[in-house]
Amino acid sequence: MSEECIFCKIARKEIEIEVIFESDNFVAFPDANPCSKGHTLIIPKKHFVNYLDLPAVLGSELLDVIKKVAEIQLREGAEGFNIIVNNGKEAGQVVMHSHTHLIPRRKGEKARVSFPCAN
Ligand code: 5GP
Ligand code: ZN
């Protein structure tokens, strides 16, 4: 666990956040710069750099948390959601503590989500 890592500090609750959902090994909280209303980040409580680093044994718990957060977003009016994971600087990863973006989508609402392969 890194002393300086901002998401480690969030996981240790040294920085106040709104906990949207929490499991044994993950915590979900609002993104500070949301791409759409309700944009949520899911992070492991332990420091892992990205998905390559994340133990596969945590995979099913992570999927469960993704589904729980998505259900909350759908209850709050979302009609769909994007799951985005940036792995590595060249892929757009800025915070080097593994995190999964869950971005709720609503008809007619503009979201700042871009797909590099779409043209
Ligand atoms: P990345 O580009 O690394 O996949 O995304 C990092 C995300 O973390 C960005 O969407 C950014 O808005 C969010 N973020 C960075 N620092 C903080 C913070 O201190 N608190 C919260 N809630 N979100 C943060
Ligand atoms: Zn960390």
CATH topology: HIT family, subunit A
In this entry the ligands are: guanosine-5'-monophosphate, zinc ion
Low-confidence stretches: none
Order of helices and strands: HEEEHEE
Q: How many helix segments?
A: 2
Domain count: the total is: 1
Shape: globular
What is the number of E strands? 5
Layout of secondary structure:
Elements: H1 6-11, E1 21-22, E2 26-30, E3 40-44, H2 59-75, E4 80-84, E5 100-105
Bound molecules: guanosine-5'-monophosphate and zinc ion (ZN).
Short description:
With 119 residues, the chain is α+β, with helices and mostly antiparallel strands.
How does this structure look, described?
A 5-stranded antiparallel β-sheet has the order 1-2-3-5-4, with helices on one face. The chain is an alpha+beta fold. The longest helix is centred in the middle third of the chain and has 17 residues, at 59-75. Helices cover 19% and strands 19% of the residues. The protein has one domain (6-105): 2-Layer Sandwich (HIT family, subunit A). The model has no long low-confidence stretch (mean pLDDT 94). Bound molecules: guanosine-5'-monophosphate and zinc ion (ZN). Residues 2, 5, 7-8, 47, 97 line the site of zinc ion (ZN).
